[in-house]
Amino acid sequence: MIPIDVSLSELERDALTEIVNIGVSRAASNLRKMIGDQVFLSVPAIEVVSQTRAARLITEREVSDLVAVRQDFTGAFAGRALLIFPEENSLDLVRAVAGSELSADEVIEIEQEALAETGNVILNSCLATMANMLKRSLSMSIPQVVRGTGASLFAAEEQGTEEGLVLFLYIDFAVRSRDIRGYIAMIMDLPSLAILKGLLEDFITRVVGDDLP
Which fold has domain 4-154+162-211? Predict the structure, then answer.
């Protein structure tokens, strides 16, 4: 159950989807420059769910273990961003990004670095766009590649810590004719999500102005 004071209205959800969509488009453009080939990223569908529900959603969809690029962000609102792939897709992504002429051993050798760089481009593009359009600034930590299950990726940091909420995005990649599915998740505590909701309200007022019902 999402607390009513941080629950997004339909208009706020639409605004957030539009902002993230612009961020994902910028991520695709930045990846295109990085690898010198066409990159397509789908329009995300956004859900706001508990960490437990996020873990369950991804576990229902993915039977293999997961690989994630993780970056913490701080600023007007704070949290943790994750770019998540099924483990079976991670080497496909590395081949797509680095070029299919690499041998299997070479792909494994550069996997960590290639995933971190790709995650950094995508997560930074999304969060920088959010911050810019909401007229705030965010700082990002160095990307880390982590592996585990949905339960471990979305576990609370400390025992007894109140569970946060997750902005959960479904994305599809197409890079060099490879279709790679993945997820972007932003884990935030209730105060941060309340701040984000307020910033979205301000954004809508700036964009729509007096036309608001």
Answer: Chemotaxis protein chec (3.40.1550)
